[in-house]
Amino acid sequence: MTGPATQTIDHVALLPAYLAAGTAVLVLCADLLRPGRYPLVLALTALGATGTGVAAWLVGAGGRTRATFCVPAPGPAPAGGSGAGAACSYVVDPFSTVVAVLFAALTVGVVGLSVATLRSGTPAGESGFLLACSLTGGVVLGSARDLITLVVAVETLTLPLYVLVGFRNRDRSADPASAQAAVTFFVVSVVASSVALLGAALLYGLTGAVHLGALADALAGRPDLRDVPLTGVAVTLLLVGLSVKVAAVPLHAWAAATYDGAPLPVAAYLSTASKLGGVVALLLVTVRAVGPWLDVAGTTLAVLAVLTMTVGNLVALRQRRTVRLLAWSSVAQAGYILAPLGAFALAAGRTDDLRPALVAATLAYTVFFVVLELTAFAAVVALRSSAGASDGGTIEGYRGSLRRAPWVTGALLLALAGLAGLPPGLAGLFAKVSVVRALVDGGSGWLALVVAVNAVLGLAYYARVAVVLCRPPVEPVAPGPGLRQGLPVAAVLTAATVAALIVGFAPQLVLAAAAFAAR
What we know:
The chain is an all-alpha fold and about 525 residues long. It has a domain at about 295-519. It has helices spanning about 15-35, 40-60, 95-115, 115-120, 125-145, 145-165, 175-205, 210-220, 230-240, 255-260, 265-290, 295-315, 320-340, 350-385, 400-405, 405-420, 425-440, 445-470, 485-505, 510-515; strands at about 65-70, 90. The chain has a two-stranded antiparallel ribbon with strand order 1-2. Helix 5 runs antiparallel to helix 6 (about 145-165) and helix 9 packs parallel to helix 12 (about 295-315).
């Protein structure tokens, strides 16, 4: 382990980031040398992402902690502070290991789903390059331990998505929705990033610290800052600015238009990997940086959680397009993810004891959600030809899918049941139970009640989609698999469905990993 006062760079700790960045360069060079060979690009991107995940797992095996880019602490840490480790900018620990593995797995899944869009003319080399760049940002984000590295990692994760959203086919004039979605996403993200940077700058001006641990020490060691209103404003601005990545209200309006206008694989990546990045950034800032100000941070996140889950569910009830419904559903799911962090505000005097449980509940719900969401998008990709619907088609366009493609529709029904928190989607059920239990234990019974009411509200639109899928088709058709998207899509759908079943019947695997990462 590299000590905090050591200037030597730990290249072993940086190996996953090196592999992710190297994959981006390799894919770009391969496309330049062999243009138009999208199978080669897909293979290189998938292999690079797999290697990144394996390297992250090996580097973090056994719960070892490695730190690099460290500087000596400016002085003795206050009692109860983070100590010498506060001055490290890049730390590999169980938390960062779990995050890197998740990002790698999601990237591999999205690469498999991208086969159809690449066949339709989407630039293969650019798509693989941008996905690998985004993966690099996700890997670095999990290990970021100062505000500068964190913001740079978040933007590295997000910037490639602006371009990916705009990819549809080579004839841009034929499909303006992609360009409009990309511009919407770009404008909202830029505004949110500016808000987050303003909050970070204000915190630095008040405390003189950018490292997360040092920032926590400064806030804990200077009670006079509580008399400065600007401190609360800075914390709120930072959290609200980062919440755009999870599509939390009020910075949520981009989600529906962007998901609907983007290619389906990119929408799947936005709904899973991008949301995972937002959760990770909020966790790092809330728990590691502004821990002494959890009353302010928790209150902000509690308000965001209530607004997000309520608005998401209410608007989802009115949707008639499949991808827009999934988009608003993911907005509501973001509210459930933020709810345990909001409980920090009401756990006065017991935050140290409850912090691991609340963080673990947030991580566990995030893992359950991304598995089910990826399954849902993979099924929609596989069904769009057999259902006669195009990207972002109407829900009614998938009528009779159970007759056309029973196995694929069954996977989609499993994912929808899980997102609703109903059997046989046991993964989603355990996710909501873990959140409600953490809220009740944290003394946030009212917030647990809001989660329960919104979960019941969400049943309406999930059930509506399930009914349409199971209704007989308008024109009788012979039963058949209906899966005509190729082996990669089938492989991703199968893997995601199996993962959903495993975490549903063995949720302790996810709960134990989340508890381990939250230590």
